[in-house]
Amino acid sequence: MKILVVDDEPLARDELSYLLKQNRLTDSVYQADSIGTAVDKLLQEKIDVIFIDISLNDENGFQLANELKKLIHPPLIVFATAFDVDAVGYVLKPFEQSRVNQALEKVQAIFKLQAKKDNSLTVNSHFGSEKTKIISITSDDKTKIIKQHDLIMATIKDGALTLITNGQSYSTRQSLGWLLSRLNKNDFLQVHRSIIVNINSISELEPWFNHTYQLKLTNGMKVPVSRSFIKAVKKRLMM
Hints:
Blueprint: E1 2-6, H1 10-21, E2 28-32, H2 35-44, E3 49-52, E4 55-56, E5 59-60, H3 61-68, E6 76-79, E7 89-90, H4 97-118, E8 122-124, E9 134-139, E10 142-147, E11 151-157, E12 160-165, E13 168-172, H5 176-180, E14 188-192, E15 195-198, E16 202-207, E17 213-217, E18 222-225, H6 230-236
Parallel strand pairs: 1-2, 1-3, 3-6, 6-7
Antiparallel strand pairs: 4-5, 8-9, 9-10, 11-12, 11-15, 12-13, 14-15, 16-17, 17-18
């Protein structure tokens, strides 16, 4: 898994990063010393879990955690202090390898549960003259036909593509590019390397951290706009 360590103390970041790298579940570890640099890294990499300190100079780790919960697929959060918070867990300073390992095992267990849900449905393309209007979803020998105008957004994480309509979501192991090639380009827009949205489902474009933006959709969900897509998004929204 890809891990981001957010702490304004260099020694603490290095110590925790070292302990994380000792665990077999860790693929790579990134560091950030503030909420701003953390957001930049989140826009650049697909982070699975964030180890974040509660106190970050004049900033608060809860601020980032609360904003991330608004995302469709937010990274799991482990705080660096023992507060009663909405997070996967916490690790105490000074850090201990056993506690770090326990946190990672808990994260892995959550990922396994999510993977079972992702594998329960399969999305198949619908060929023919209607391929630009509908997408067929096959599960348990039954096929669900989704009209493209009902599709609010699609996002991919860890190889699992999730299509979201009002009140429903469907998962497959197809790629985001596979879906993008089948969507009506006039109605859909890629706003992040892992997110596509229906333009008709956008209700607001609002500022987020560090001069970035996020979109508020008609179903209440919020999604980030990657820096590399900001110009295209503003153009399509006639800004």
